[in-house]
Amino acid sequence: MTNDREHAKLERLTFFSDAVFAIAMTLLVIEVRLPELHVVSDHSLAQALLHLLPNYIGFIISFLVIGRFWTGHHRLMGMIDTADPALVRANLLLLMAIAFMPFPTAILSDYSLLRVAIGFYTAYLLVVGLVNIWVIRTALRHQSQGNPAVAEDARLLRRSMWSPLVIAATGFAAGMVSPGIGLVAMVVVTPFVLLLVNRIGNRPAGPAPAEQA
């Protein structure tokens, strides 16, 4: 009976979290506004759509960022058996950070050529990454025991949880040189960081220590 109650609590936490992630990802498209034309023509519409390029980029980056966090969160919820109050509090803080993501995205989209905009966005991404690490560490205290597949997934998740910090730090540093370079850096560096994390994670953990006689 107790196990059923704990499983129900974990399911409710998972469903609620999925809903917040989905809503935050959906709200990102609001920043891709319908262009207003003073003269209705093919040329003016083409120019207006081109001027929305920073909005497209902001949407794509933030959608992939939130999607990446959701993917990790989804895997994490499948590794644990229960949700204690500490995990609920940490998870709620992560959801608050995710729900706020459309605002930094709007700043980045509307002021993409300013260092403050790219600095604000990447600094906030660092904050979300740190909260995500807190959630992972809190949750994995309750991971399913005795399952080698779960143990391997947990090992990979512990490695990959640092990738958002690397991507955000790279974007921040490049953005202080040039906002455009900062945007490109986040788009270009992301797949290389994820590839590196996957390669490191796929390395064998090494032979187990010999048992003492």
Description:
By secondary structure, the protein is an all-alpha fold. It has helices at 2-27, 42-51, 53-77, 85-99, 102-110, 115-139, 148-160, 163-177, 179-201. The chain is elongated and about 65 Å long. The chain starts with a helix and ends in a 12-residue tail after the last helix. Helices cover 76% and strands 0% of the residues.
Helix-strand topology string: HHHHHHHHH
How widely separated are the two ends?
42 Å
Helix segment tally? 9
Rough outline: elongated
What keyword list fits this structure?
elongated, disordered C terminus, single chain, mainly alpha, 213 residues
Quick gist of this model?
With 213 residues, this protein is mainly alpha-helical.
Task: Indicate the topology.
Elements: H1 2-27, H2 42-51, H3 53-77, H4 85-99, H5 102-110, H6 115-139, H7 148-160, H8 163-177, H9 179-201
Helix pairs in contact: 1-3, 1-4, 3-5, 4-6, 5-6, 6-8, 7-9, 8-9
